[in-house]
């Protein structure tokens, strides 16, 4: 009982602090009218923050397609908002995970986290400026579609043994996980989300790491990546748009509690229910993008290449896991 109270205190104090600062800012700057113009983002993030805490998807995985496809918001604004809001919501989900004693995989966290940090810096500086808006949108939904198929195979097709921690990794295997983290960080730099998906898929499919362990670890990973992206765009590049900040302000009180709630729920329900929900969301996102964007030949081929790249990656990982089952 005493330990539970201490854990609750470690979560409550940061939450009260952030909410107090937020309330003071909103009152002193007379910013309450932001809700009048941006209330729909508050509603979006009620659901988005829950998914962020309950799955290997960050809150940006919900916010980005809704903002770019349904509300026609510029992808750069959607990406920066995703960084900003995940730096709050997923950080609080991480606090809840740590203070609740939910198991995580530390080697996965450290190796992929460092790779993600490198990737988001490289991607932000060298790759993001080259991606056109419609290409960014189709890149998002195409990559996610390949992830959705991998998620379906992992949960509903393959019968596999799971482990509670990664095996002892060789230098090559550590380098491999580091490179996957770099790739995920680059995806995050363009889409506001991606490190969690790439690394989650890798450790679950290749090593059979249990989703009960991989999911909370990926939440902490994406929290660190989102903070890095937020700091980069706000303090170093000065590219954090006023629109992104306005959306952020109307969502802060929602995500502080929504993401930890998701982390609490996922620890008590079956992984297949969450996986099925994510797959349905991914399919809906993809076909919505096709309807809204109506890609031409060049954009369609780009989308196909992104999808096939993801499929080849996940197929190779699945095959690798298949051959390694005897050693588990």
Helix and strand arrangement:
Blueprint: H1 2-28, H2 34-54, H3 60-70, H4 75-99, H5 106-127, H6 133-157, H7 171-191, H8 195-207, H9 211-236, H10 242-249, H11 252-266, H12 271-293, H13 297-323
Describe the protein.
There is one protein chain. The chain is an all-alpha fold and 328 residues long. It has one domain (2-327). Helices cover 80% and strands 0% of the residues. The chain has 13 helices and no strands. It has helices at residues 2-28, 34-54, 60-70, 75-99, 106-127, 133-157, 171-191, 195-207, 211-236, 242-249, 252-266, 271-293, 297-323. Helix 4 packs parallel to helix 10, helix 5 packs across helix 7 (171-191) and helix 8 (195-207) packs parallel to helix 13 (297-323). The longest helix has 27 residues, at 2-28. The two termini are 38 Å apart. Residues 321-328 have low confidence and may be disordered.
Keywords:
single chain; 328 residues; mainly alpha; disordered C terminus
Please tally the helical runs, counting DSSP H or I stretches of 4 or more residues. Answer: 13
* Portion in beta strands: under 5%
Q: Residue-averaged pLDDT, rounded?
A: 88
Judging from the principal axes of the Cα atoms, what is the shape? globular
Count of all domains: 1
Radius of gyration, in Å, reads 19 Å
SSE order? HHHHHHHHHHHHH
Query: How many angstroms does the end-to-end distance come to?
Result: 38 Å
Q: Provide the low-confidence segments as ranges.
A: 321-328
Number of strands: 0
Largest sheet entry: none
State the helicity in percent bands.
over 70%
Q: Given the helix and strand composition, which structural class is it?
A: mainly alpha
């Amino acid at each position: 009982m005493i330990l539970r109270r201490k854990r609750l205190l470690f979560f409550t104090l940061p939450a009260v602090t952030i909410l107090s600062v937020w309330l003071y800012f909103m009152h002193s700057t007379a910013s309450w009218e932001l809700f009048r113009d941006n209330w729909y983002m508050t509603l979006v993030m009620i659901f988005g923050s829950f998914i962020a805490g309950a799955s290997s998807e960050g809150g940006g995985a919900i916010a980005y397609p809704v903002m770019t496809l349904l509300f026609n918001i510029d992808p750069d604004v959607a990406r920066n908002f995703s960084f900003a809001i995940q730096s709050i919501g997923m950080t609080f989900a991480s606090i809840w995970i740590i203070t609740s004693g939910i198991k995580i995989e530390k080697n996965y966290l450290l190796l992929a986290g460092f790779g993600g940090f490198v990737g988001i810096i490289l991607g932000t500086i060298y790759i993001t400026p080259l991606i056109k808006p419609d290409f960014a949108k189709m890149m998002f939904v195409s990559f996610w579609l390949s992830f959705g198929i991998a998620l379906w195979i992992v949960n509903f097709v393959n019968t596999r043994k799971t482990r509670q921690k990664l095996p002892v990794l060789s230098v090559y295997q550590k380098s491999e996980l580091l490179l996957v983290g770099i790739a995920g960080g680059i995806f995050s730099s363009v889409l506001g989300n991606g490190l969690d998906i790439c690394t989650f898929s890798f450790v679950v499919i290749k090593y059979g790491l249990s989703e009960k362990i991989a999911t909370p670890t990926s939440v902490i990973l994406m929290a660190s990546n989102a903070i890095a992206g937020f700091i980069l765009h706000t303090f170093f590049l000065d590219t954090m748009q006023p629109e992104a900040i306005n959306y952020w302000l109307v969502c802060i009180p929602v995500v502080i509690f929504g993401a930890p709630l998701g982390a609490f729920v996922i620890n008590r329900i079956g992984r297949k229910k969450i996986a099925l929900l994510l797959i349905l969301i991914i399919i809906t996102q993809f076909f919505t993008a096709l309807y809204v964007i109506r890609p031409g030949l060049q954009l369609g081929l780009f989308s196909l290449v992104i999808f096939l790249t993801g499929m080849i990656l996940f197929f190779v990982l699945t095959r690798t896991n298949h051959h390694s089952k005897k050693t588990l």
